[in-house]
Structure prediction request, 207 residues.
Amino acid sequence: FFLMIRRPPRSTLPLRRQRQMCIRDSYRGEAQYLLGNFDKALSDFNIALSINPNYSQAYYNTAIYYDDLNNSKLAVINLDSAIKYNDKNFLAYEMRGKIKQKYKLHLEAIQDFDYSISQKPNNITALYYRSLSYHELGRLHSALDDLNQVLNYDPTLVPALFIRADVLKSLNKIEEAKIDYENILSEQRNNTRAKKELIKIKRAKRP
Prediction:
């Protein structure tokens, strides 16, 4: 006579144990993703969601998977779910904003960046991308405010220096733009675009 001990189905496990398994599977998926085992990563995220369909982080991780495949539709669907189950998931708002920005939906993108920044005021990435949408919409002073915050945090961030210089030129603050181009060259001395912009400024100053 043999006593068969079977593992209970996950749905009958204590809630605390289900949560532990859900988090474990999601973390394992993140590790698989970093190792380049993308299909295994997606499988682990799906397992985590089968245990807890309300687990925001697993939806966010799945969205990263689909975004890297350039499947924006499925990425946004998963980001919507990530936000639905955790409206403080600032990374989900930020990522959804970046996708909307890619499709020129700048007002919607700004709204998502606003939510992200409201949850994490020093979210430099969201501030930078929001400045891009402001710039595209011609809201130059708002773009400048965001870029100033970004560059106060990291004065060597070349993409932000370029955008701020463009904004300053549009606001006719040429000397300030010149400083940004010079700072770009201090970081990247062979940057062709910065050199060309400085030449244009010098030529414009000639009588």
Q: What stands out?
A: The chain has eleven helices and no strands.
